[in-house]
Write a structure and sequence with these properties.
By secondary structure, the chain is an all-beta fold. About 0% of the residues lie in helices and about 45% in strands. The chain has a single domain (about 30-370), classed as Neuraminidase, CATH 2.120.10. The chain has strands spanning about 25-30, 45-50, 65-70, 75-80, 85-90, 95-100, 115-120, 125-130, 130-135, 140-145, 155-160, 165-170, 180-190, 195-205, 220-225, 230, 250-255, 260-265, 280-285, 290-300, 305-310, 315-320, 335-340, 340-350, 365-370. It has a five-stranded mixed β-sheet, with no helix packed on it. Strands 2-25-24-23 form a four-stranded antiparallel β-sheet, with no helix packed on it. The radius of gyration is 21 Å and the shape is globular.
Length: about 375
C-alpha cells in the first residue's frame, strides 16, 4: 500500500544566516589559460582495474553510467535516464551477480532512474525515480516506496549518510507565474522516508518560465572522512535568470543543519566577463583530505577543463579534457568521479577492446585510492 506524507518542514535555515567573511574563506586560484598534463600516478596511492563481465543481462552502456557504488564485496553500477535506467550488481572480481528492480508503473518498479544511494549499514539502496523513492535490499528484494514524500518538487541527488537519507530538491512554482522563484533545499529523511528537517541552500528568481536547469554531474552530496560536503551547480542551456550573474564557486560542508562555506575557487574576474555575463560554467567541486577537484567549461573557448589542487604543495593543475593515464597506458584523457561514500576514493571507466574481441566488452572499472 502506498503511503503519502504531508510535510511540516522544520528547522529551515537560510544560508544567509551563516555567512563567512570573504577574507576568512580559503580561496584557490584557477588559471584558466593554463593547460598542462597531470599524470594519474601523481595523485594515486594505488589503483585496481576490474573487468565487468558481459552477459545478456549485464550489458552496460558507458554513456549512461550515472553512479558507481562500492560496498564490501560488491560493485553497483547505476545507469540513469528518463524512462530508462538499470541497476547491475557485480562482485569485486567483476563477475555479474544480479540486477535490481525493473521498469514499470507498479509498486517497486521504476519508470526511470535519476540516482541511487546506499545504506551500507542496513544493506539497502534507495532509488530516485521521480515522483517516487524506492527502497530495495542488496539481493534485489523490494522493501518499500514513497510517492512524492516532498510534494511538488524535483529530486536532484540522494545520499545516505549518518543514518539518514539526504535528498537534494528543487522547487519550481507553476509556470503561469510571471516571475519564478526557485528554491533549492536539502532534506533529511528517516528510514521510513518521512522528512525530519531541511535547510534552504539558496533561492533565485527568473522571468523565464521555460528555463529548466541541466545538471551534468550529480555527485553533489559527498561523504568525507569527518564531514559531509555539498556543491550544487546550476547550468542553463540557453536562457539565464536576469539576476543570476554570480558564479557558484563555493564548496560547503554540512554541520548539523547548517551549510558552512569550506572553500571557493577563484576565477579571473570571478568568472564574469566585461559584459556582465558568466563565462565559466562550473559543473562540480569535490575534495579529499588532500586534493580539491573541479570540472568546468570555459564558454569563451568552449573547452572543458579538469582542475586539481594539492593542498599540501599548493600546486594547481588545469587540464583540458582530463588527466593523463600513465599507469594503464590509456591514450585518451581521463575524467575521474568521486565515490559518494568515501571522498578518498575516485573511479573512472574505459572500454578496452582486444584484437580477439568479436563484440565490444563491458567497460573496465578503475578504482583509485588517492594519496593523503
Amino acid at each position: 500500500m502506498k503511503t503519502y506524507f504531508y510535510i511540516s518542514v522544520i528547522g529551515v535555515l537560510l544560508l544567509s544566516c551563516n555567512r563567512t567573511r570573504q577574507s576568512d574563506l580559503f580561496e584557490i586560484p584557477v588559471e584558466i589559460n593554463q593547460n598542462n598534463s597531470l599524470p594519474l600516478s601523481k595523485i594515486t596511492e594505488e589503483m585496481k582495474a576490474i573487468e565487468l563481465e558481459l552477459t545478456d543481462e549485464s550489458l552496460i552502456n558507458p554513456d549512461r553510467i550515472q553512479r558507481i557504488i562500492l560496498e564490501e564485496n560488491i560493485i553497483i553500477v547505476v545507469e540513469a535516464g528518463p524512462g530508462e535506467g538499470k541497476i547491475l550488481v557485480f562482485n569485486t572480481d567483476g563477475k555479474f551477480l544480479r540486477s535490481i528492480g525493473s521498469r514499470g508503473q507498479g509498486p517497486g518498479e521504476y519508470t526511470g532512474i535519476k540516482n541511487v544511494a546506499l545504506d551500507g549499514k542496513n544493506k539497502r539502496i534507495y532509488i530516485i525515480s521521480y515522483p517516487k523513492i524506492i527502497c530495495y535490499d542488496l539481493d534485489g528484494k523490494f522493501i518499500k516506496e514513497s510517492t512524492q514524500p516532498i510534494q511538488s518538487n524535483i529530486y536532484q541527488d540522494i545520499n545516505y549518510i549518518n543514518d539518514a537519507l539526504l535528498l537534494l530538491v528543487d522547487y519550481v512554482p507553476p509556470q503561469n507565474d510571471t516571475q519564478l522563484k526557485k528554491t533549492h533545499s536539502l532534506y533529511r529523511l528517516n528510514d521510513d522516508l518521512q522528512v525530519l528537517d531541511s535547510c534552504i541552500i539558496r533561492e533565485n528568481y527568473t522571468d523565464f518560465a521555460s528555463v529548466i536547469s541541466v545538471y551534468f554531474y550529480n555527485d553533489f552530496i559527498l561523504k568525507g572522512n569527518t564531514s559531509v560536503y555539498l556543491y550544487y551547480s546550476e547550468i542553463y542551456p540557453k536562457l539565464r535568470a536576469p539576476n543570476e550573474i554570480v558564479l557558484r564557486d563555493t564548496l560547503y560542508r554540512l554541520e548539523d543543519n547548517l551549510l558552512v562555506p569550506e572553500l571557493k575557487l577563484k576565477f579571473r574576474n570571478d568568472g564574469i566577463d566585461g559584459f556582465g555575463a558568466k563565462f565559466i560554467d562550473l559543473l562540480n567541486i569535490f575534495r579529499s583530505s588532500r586534493y580539491v577537484f573541479s570540472i568546468y567549461i570555459d564558454n569563451q573557448t568552449k573547452n572543458k577543463y579538469h582542475f586539481c589542487y594539492d593542498t599540501i604543495t599548493g600546486e594547481g593543475n588545469n587540464m583540458q579534457d582530463g588527466y593523463t593515464d600513465d599507469i594503464n597506458g590509456i591514450e585518451k584523457r581521463i575524467s575521474i568521479r568521486p565515490l559518494i561514500t568515501d571522498s578518498e576514493i575516485c573511479y573512472f571507466w574505459h572500454t578496452n577492446m582486444k584484437p580477439e574481441d568479436k563484440e565490444e566488452p563491458n567497460p573496465t572499472l578503475y578504482i583509485i585510492k588517492l594519496k593523503k
